[in-house]
UniProtKB/TrEMBL annotation:
GO cellular component: extracellular region
Assigned keywords, A-Z: Cell shape, Cell wall biogenesis/degradation, Glycosyltransferase, Hydrolase, Peptidoglycan synthesis, Transferase
Family of the protein in this entry: Belongs to the YkuD family.
Protein name according to UniProt: L,D-TPase catalytic domain-containing protein
């Protein structure tokens, strides 16, 4: 897969009608449009009250099932243990070897803020502080109050976990991180970073060590 697609190396960095009649006959109930969700997924995305800041359960009925965390077939040259983000698919893959990968649904950067390339996870942080970049503060002056950092918590844009992406020794300023904005999964909504459901980023955080290679493909 690495040989069949080119990628960028630089950072440029939601939404019924009813009717009535005079008949007394009862209409048959409308079929449900929502398929029942597997209890495995309900448990996977259950609340995490043991966290430093208790994480609420995800209402996964509002998320396309293809974006649920799952093991999938994966035909790739990526080394086991490495991370691949396919931005056009809105998926993050953790290569497992033997033609398999753990796949997570993600939200990715809006056009004009996207980053792509080969890098590494230089460090990881549980419940990180968020400091907006200088360019972001220029675009959104109201963020200046966080120039020295925003305290951890569910309202913090980095969420429950953050994985920091570096090219060599240079911080790209892009992260894989948690989000409470579940609607953003599967969409291009962030300022360049890779967003994951809180439960998913916690799972990924526990699976990968610092130094893990990462490739982010752009189309």
């Amino acid at each position: 897969m690495l040989d069949r697609r080119t990628f960028l190396i630089s950072a440029a960095a939601a939404i019924a009608t009813g009717c009535s009649g005079n008949t007394t006959a009862k209409l048959p109930p409308k079929p449900s449009l929502t398929k029942p969700v597997s209890t495995d997924y309900v448990q996977m995305y259950a609340a995490r009250p043991q966290e430093r800041f208790p994480v609420p359960a995800v209402d996964i009925s509002k998320i396309d099932p293809k974006f649920y965390r799952q093991v999938v077939d994966y035909n790739s040259s990526a080394q086991p243990g490495s991370i691949v983000v396919e931005t056009h698919e809105r998926f993050l893959y953790l290569a497992m070897g033997d033609g398999k990968a753990m796949r997570y649904g993600v939200g990715i950067g809006r056009d004009g803020f996207a980053w792509g390339g080969r890098a590494r996870i230089a460090r990881k942080k549980a419940w990180p502080t968020w400091t907006p970049p200088t360019d972001m503060i220029k675009r959104q002056p109201k963020l200046a109050k966080y120039k020295n950092g925003m305290d951890p918590g569910l309202d913090n844009p980095l969420g429950a976990r953050a994985l920091y992406i570096f090219e060599g020794n240079k911080d790209t300023l892009y992260r894989i991180h948690g989000t409470s904005e579940t609607w953003s999964i599967g969409k291009a909504a962030s300022s360049g970073c890779v967003r994951m459901l809180q439960q998913d980023v916690i799972d990924l955080y526990n699976r990968v060590p610092e130094g893990t290679p990462i490739t982010v493909y752009q189309v």
